[in-house]
Amino acid sequence: MAAGRPPRGLAPSGVSACAPRWGPRTSVLSRVSCRARAALGLVSIAPSCGSFDIAMPVLPPRPRPALPLRPPARLLPVGLAALLSGLLGAGPAPARAEEAPPWQAWPVRSATGDNRSDDAADLAPLTAGLAGVRVLGLAEQTHGGHEEFATKLRLLRHLHETQGFDVLLLESGFFDVEQLQQDVQAAARLRGKASAARSSSWARGAPGNVFYMYSKSVEGQALMAYLDQQQAMGRPLLVAGIDSQHSGLRSQQDLARGLRRALRSGMGGARGRALSEDAGWQAYARQLTTLFTLSRQAPPAAERQAFQARSQALQDALCAVRETRARPDGAGWWCRVVRSMDAQARSLWSNGADYQRDQAMGDNAIWLMEQLHPGRKAVVWGHTVHLARGFQRDPAHLQAGEVMHRQWGAAYQVLQFSASGGRYLDYVSLQEADVPAQPPQALEQQLAREHPGQALLVRASAPVTLPQFAYEYGQGGVESSQQPGQLGRHWDWLWLLPRISPARMAP
To answer: What is the model's pTM?
Structure first.
């Protein structure tokens, strides 16, 4: 029931409780005399008059008399005239019109095949709404929904081929993805020559180096195939990883060695060269080897302090270098690598108490877009909990989406995916799970009733406070530590799928 409105069949608050006792022949003055005289201070309200503040049943309308019942106001004391006007002038308040929901929904097509013949006409509202947007986060609730991945690939194709988004930022290791990017670009320069490396493609290089749901699922491999296709056609996407968490084969094999080689070459000056040669380097490198296994076992306090001291010294040496132009394998880039490893250590060794992963992810994205790819537009491909704005564990531990939002403001938008039913693949256990039932008033269920069986693109003009899925379809994990997310507050767009099905791992 709407606040401030009486139940249907009841008069508005303030109508006399004596009303049921009035007969059809009772004059208007006798009906209000008790109230009017009380209002003027001439009498006290009699108990039989009841209370002004309760709602009473509305009597059936009576035939309107031939002469007006309202006495001329000029013949009555001012207080009585005002009271009569309030009681008799307007009658019961008209019913308030039903408020429109604070969102607009457009039917959209589900992704099918590779969408090469996609005319994208249904994406016109999204295209118009992205005017002025430089970075768009495509946020998946779970890493295991087939339709989420397929639709994200459809949107990436549209944004890259028609809207000028030519950078793809992946939720994957900062170091690993850049190494693959360099390999792919080198192979493209050698195309047609016998020395071109057969393994230098996204499809071949990603498994073991890119997050496994993006490189070892059938849906993720479709993304890698698209990257190779665009590279071969001469309109490549520039791909980078933003994750500060490193566990790929390239990190395990090449990171410590590559960092030492860069320092020995003079990157970071004399201080950097000294750090690569002193007795503490081997202990630092051994800690990195353990760190890249994602072990949460913290080293003894003395070793941990030594690691953090060296990490800070490396940052001081590398991050202070002034570069006229940022480049992969430059001082600024290695500065981000070292800071990422420091964030990884703090997050894992504190078991999340000093969670720095997301702050570093956001900082990596900002460096990539402001230093390595200035002036370009990017799509960020990752989990909702990392891309949505407004999330933080506490003021000192922001999620990456909030870091990016604070940097780019309205030029950063987020498109969230959700479903009103179906099943998905739990990316941790690799077991299928049901999308849980929602209450009828949930956003997804209301939209599903209004547009049965239809995929929808939804945009809100204000935060939607209805219950709604935010991440992992409400099934917990690390994401359960975050506040409930809302369309219009934490993401700008919602792509609602009528049903999802599990992603499939490649053989």
So the answer is: 0.79
